[in-house]
Amino acid sequence: MRRLPVYLLIDTSGSMRGEPLESVKSGIAAMVGGLRQDPHALESLHLSIITFDREVKILLPLSGLETLQIPEIVCPDSGPTHLGAALEVLCERVDTEVLRTEGERKGDWRPLLFIMASLRCGLNRCRFSCWVGDQRSRK
What we know:
Elements: E1 4-11, H1 19-35, H2 39-44, E2 45-52, E3 56-64, H3 83-97, E4 112-116
Parallel strand pairs: 1-2, 1-4
Antiparallel strand pairs: 2-3
């Protein structure tokens, strides 16, 4: 069965401390609980959780729903938000964890990425692009 890799990038900088992070944790628990009720999701969905503040941490490598244990997610009192570093780690993980199609063997589905962050952008606008896998440029 082909896997559907799902990556959660979670901002754990100081701006997420308290209610924002608690909301994210509640949402993840509800999402996992709901997905476990779907037999197709149980067979195919694999989840990874990566947090970022001044450091990027892989809290949960790509794991199937059946055995998945949601890790403790904490954040420091204050600190920067290194989203760029988190995206770099994400690209490295996708390159190593996502199976590609080879010959007759089908690879994984294209990965999904969800970013949960408290971002402040100038002039109330924020724009960024993220390419994962074969479509991103390699430098």
